Structures are given as structure tokens and as C-alpha cells.
Amino acid sequence: MAQETSEGLIASAALTLKDIAREAGVSLATVDRVLHNRPGVRPATVRRVQEIIARNAFQPHVAAAELARGRARRFAFVMPTGANPFMQQIEAYLGEMSAWLSARRLNVELINTDVFDPSVLAASLEALSGEYDGVAVVALDHPAVRAAINDLVDGGTKVVTLVSDVPSSRRHHYVGIDNIAAGRTAGALVGRLVGQKPGRIAIIAGSQGLRDHAERIFGFNQVMGSEFSHLDILPLLEGRDDDDRSEQLISRLLGKHPDIVGLYNVGAGTQGVANALTEAGRGKEIVFVAHDLTAMTRRLLLQGTLDVAISQNPGHEARAAVRVLLSLARNEPILSEQEKIRIDILMRDNLP
Amino acid sequence: MAQETSEGLIASAALTLKDIAREAGVSLATVDRVLHNRPGVRPATVRRVQEIIARNAFQPHVAAAELARGRARRFAFVMPTGANPFMQQIEAYLGEMSAWLSARRLNVELINTDVFDPSVLAASLEALSGEYDGVAVVALDHPAVRAAINDLVDGGTKVVTLVSDVPSSRRHHYVGIDNIAAGRTAGALVGRLVGQKPGRIAIIAGSQGLRDHAERIFGFNQVMGSEFSHLDILPLLEGRDDDDRSEQLISRLLGKHPDIVGLYNVGAGTQGVANALTEAGRGKEIVFVAHDLTAMTRRLLLQGTLDVAISQNPGHEARAAVRVLLSLARNEPILSEQEKIRIDILMRDNLP
DNA sequence: CTCAAAATGAGTTGCGTACCTCAAAACGCC
DNA sequence: GGCGTTTTGAGGTACGCAACTCATTTTGAG
What we know:
The structure is a homodimer. Chain A has helices spanning about 15-25, 30-35, 45-55, 60-70, 85-95, 100-105, 120-130, 145-155, 180-195, 210-225, 245-255, 270-280, 295-305, 315-330, 335-340, and strands at about 5-10, 75-80, 105-115, 135, 160, 175, 200-205, 230-235, 235-240, 260-265, 285-290, 310, 345. Chain A has about 350 residues and is an alpha/beta fold. In chain A, strands 7, 8, 9, 10, 11, 12 and 13 form a seven-stranded mixed beta sheet that branches. A five-stranded parallel beta sheet of chain A has the order 3-2-4-5-6, sandwiched between helices. At the A-B interface, strand 1, helix 4, helix 5, helix 6 and strand 3 of A face strand 1, helix 4, helix 5, helix 6 and strand 3 of B.
């Protein structure tokens, strides 16, 4: 009876800097110096103050700190030019945050540049040095870009790679998915949905030169080879993320191989691939897996031409990038579980 | 050349209340009265001030507002007692937020109570009245509970239902998934993974009396009936979310029906069901779909007994509930896209 | 026009931190 | 023990808003 309801408290701590100063027997100024790694404090005192901060799990009041800084923080998002729908969705979600951003006095600037040209991208990044508190960049993995990122980091700017990573750089964080795992997921889905039926599998990508496409292909082949070896994988087609070209390539392939049972589109151009499938009258019989959720892939899922869309949530990526940059700028821990981008499997019935 | 790089700005606005007051030709006090719906301002003045606030897209500085309130906000999470792993995960993720919470001077209290007894739950909720700024509750849909929620809302407390909704109440928000869609997703997966093979489908739930289970069953049957009518669905078993009981029921069923090709577990007890499958030596041949990602279902997925886990991200639910309560308390708009809980399809290769 | 009620202005205080200055104290070195 | 240097204390200002008081002006009803 008495124990029917129990209570627990998560996080209390209403301590202030003044409390810490009193407990440490020093002045506010000294605590402030320790907290911000400012010089002029004896090592022994630094240790004592830090110990008391740690012992009391003291957290500076974010609101007060933010207010006291005065100036607003500036973040830059370096995104590809051109009509990539996925990138446009990210930009759109940033726009939806504008009220949230301005209520926190955060300035986010969009910088569209040719991220596929390493020297152009590197130059764009160099130009940001010193101007921004944080930079999120859809980056190509190239030595020049890596160097530009490292320069930014050295200059004190927080850097987050978005969608596409540059693991060899010293960027603070990567917001995006593991593309090998995404390719594996695609492979497992194609294989499982095809079932026992023997036949061939077609695979088309934008280009093998794109890191994310290459990784997806790698993961896909890995799974197909090890678990669905009864299925024959046709040589990779390169559709250059273009609808017309993809449609032509797939049409020709379908004509040549009447025994195709599965199809994986690694990159964009899904509409073109779907057209080819429909024209051949094999839209419902061939298992078709593609990437990203757009108005178009949503339609294809609902009408059954597309069986699965593997996607990374662009809204989540946009918001995670902003939150991570903000946490980094505040020297606040990152909620890693929250900022991790999942590989979404979207079928007709779990469309968001 | 000149247009290689373009720039865009998202959200600026560094206006303060003082600016608004000046532009409206009124004093700070009046703007404050308008902003907080305090009495003593002529309707015409209210309109004029509001218009200027709207025209300039003025956003009060969150940090300043938070600092000025003085007192911390108190939120209560009313969760079920007992060893439900999913609920324990939510509580664990709340614990992981503790640094984040205390840096914002937010107090979150866990209140464990018997949420399955309407009168006990209603009493627990009534007891919170006036004590908290916000309440998140895993609620049973029952008239007494509905009334208790409405009382809280009327008392000015923000209320969010968590995992399980009470749509007939006036709760401000629901953080959780659409269980009918989850059931439909399960049905589509079972049907598609089984493929052409004819046979029977087994389905076991905790209880038909639980709203979420009933909804999932409904969605599952909907899809199976309309799209996979060649598959025969066996009568529902009730395992009461208990491993042993579920194992016994499924073992008996497997013995009786050698032609079972698919199995859907609506609730808990997945370990028991898996045991029965393994003992019968049919773990890999029967398509098995269950709910929730735990250490156990993760293991079953990796070893291939379980084919798909349909899950809602407990960490996301915990954080979304806190964020929504905070936004509600601040009278701030909610980023609905962000707070929406997705139905995750988890297979071996996209395990987070 | 009068007068009470309503509306508004002007001002204050405090929230907890960042950042700054200047004086005072403690320290280490010779 | 005296010196310069380093360390520390004390205090102030500012950030933008909430919440309050009190005086003053405006308004509308009679």
C-alpha cells in the first residue's frame, strides 16, 4: 500500500558560481579564471577549484552564460549548388528552424558552392576562417579539403561534416549515416524480398567515384555474396544520378535480361529507373530498392513500384548539425545517442 | 565565375523588447503586458503592439527569459512500475540527460505507479496538480484517467501522453507511434518476407485488452487480409507478455501446425517465442517479426531467429517528451517534424 | 464637467554568467 | 629582507527579460 508509488529525481543542482567560490574559499574571479582556462591561477588552486566543481557536478546555467556572451553565434552551412532534392530538404528544414534559431540568437548562413570540385570547396572553406563559430560542410574527401578543414579547426572554428564524411580530417563530428551499413541493408532487403526465386540482380549508381555510392555498393555486394549467392549480380551501371540516362540504361538491361528479379538504385535517378520498370511492365514483379524519401519515392512506394526506400532523415540531419555545433561552441557534452543518424527502412506502411 | 558561390541567411532578428516598445510608441511595461496577456491594456493597443511584434518576427531571447523567471521548471514523468524493459530504457535515457537538464535548471522527477489500474493512475495524476509545470504520462485510456488529465490541463499544467495515448483527453501532445501503422508494417513485412510460399501465420499478443496491442493486431489483420490473402491467419494467442507462457503456447501451436510460415509477436515475451521456435528447429525457416529493440532482440536479430524488430526509439521518446514539455511551458512552437516518433524497421544490418 | 476606473509610463530589482579593471596580497628569487 | 612578479580579491557593468510598484494620464459614464 505504502509502496504503490515511488519517486525518483533526475538532476537537481541549483548551485551557482558564487556557491563554488564560497566552498572553495576563493573569489568569483578566480573561479571564473579556472572555468575558462584563463592564466594567472596557481596550479594547486586550479586543481582545488576543479575538484569542487566536479564533486558538486556543477553546471553553469546555460541561459545565463548565453545571455552574458552578448554577441550571437554564427554558423555556416556549406552545401552543394544544384538541384539535389536531398540537400534541398536539408536546407528547407534549416529554414523551418528559423524561429527556433532566432529565439536563441543563432545566425545560420547557407553557403552554396561546388562541393564536388576539391579546390573550389577548399577555397570556400578557407574563406570562412575566423568568421564563424561553427561550420557544417557537405564535404568531399580530398587532401585539399582535409587541409582546409584542419585549418578551420586550428583557427578555433568548430567543424561538422554533413552527409558525407572526411574521416581523415580533424573535424569534430560527423552527422550522417554509415553508408556501408546502408548498402548492406539494401542487400539484405533485396535478397530477402526476392526470396527463393533464382535470377539476376541489377545495380545502378550515380558514379563509383562518389565515396558514399562506393561504400553502399561495397556493403551491398558484401551481403549478396555471403548470403544470397544464388542470385547473380549484373555489372554495375553508372546513371550519373540522371533520370533520363538511368531510364535508358535500365530499359536496355531489362530487355537483355528477362530473368532480373531485383534492382538496387544506389543514388538518385529513381524516377528514371521506375519509368523503365513500368514501361517494361515489370514494376510489380521486380523487387526495387532505392534511397531517400522524396515526394517522388513516396509516390512510387504507395503505388508499389518501389518496395523499400532506405533513407536518412534530412530534418534530423539538419537539426543534429545545428545542435552539435551549438554544443561544441558551448563546450557542452553532446548527446551522442540523440545525434546519431539512423538508417531508416521505409515501406508503404511506415511512411512518416 | 562570380556566381560560383551564393549565400543565404536563415533567421536574424536581434531585436529586443525595447526596440518593440520604441517602434510601437509605448513603454516596456505595456509590451510586457501584451506579451504575457496581462490585463490593463486597451484592445486597440494590444493589437498595435502585436502587429509590430508579428511584423518584425520578434522572438524573445530564450536565454534572457529563462534567466529572468528565477525558479526552475518541474516536470514529472509518470511511468509504470515493474520490469518492462522498454519503459526502463526510457527512464535510462532520461538519466543520461541529467547534465543537459541541470544545465538548464530543469527538474525531472520519475513517479512510478500502477498505470494499469485506472483509479490508481488517476489518483496519482490528481496528486500532481499544481506541483508541476509539466507532466508526461504513460496513460491508460479510461474515463477516470481522461478526467484526471483534463483537470491537470485546466490547472495550467502541460500534459504529454507518452507511448500510449488518451486521444479523448485534452492533453497537449502525444509522443509515441501510430500503433495501427506499426501493425500494418508488421503485416507487410511478414507477408513480403514469406513470399509466395503458402501456409499459416501465427500471432501472439500480450492481451487484446491493451489498446496498443489491439491496434497493432488490427493493422496487421488489415494488411494480411487485403494483400496476403493466400496466407491463413491462426486465432490470436494471448501470452500476457510473459516468456514462459508464450513459449508454451507457441510450442503447442508449432506442434499442431507444421505449415506455419510466419509469426508475429505483438507484445513482449519475445524470448519465450524464440525459445519455442529454436526448440522446434524452425527458427530460421519461419519468418518472425516482433517489437522493440532490447539486448535480447538484438541478439535474436544477429543470430537470425528474429527477422525484423519493429521499434520506437525510447531515447527519442524520452528526449522528445522533455523538449515538448519545455516548449509548451515556454509557449514556444513545437518542431513537430522533430518530435514525431517514427516506426523503425530494424534488421540485422541497420541495427544502431 | 466631474470623477472613478482603466490604461499607461517610468522605474526598479534580480536572474547567473562573462569580462574587465585595479588594488592588495602572496610568492619566489637573490 | 627587499624586490619584482605572480596570484588573488573585490567590485563593477552588461546581457534581455520577468515581475513588480507607483505615479500619471486617459477614458468613459453619469
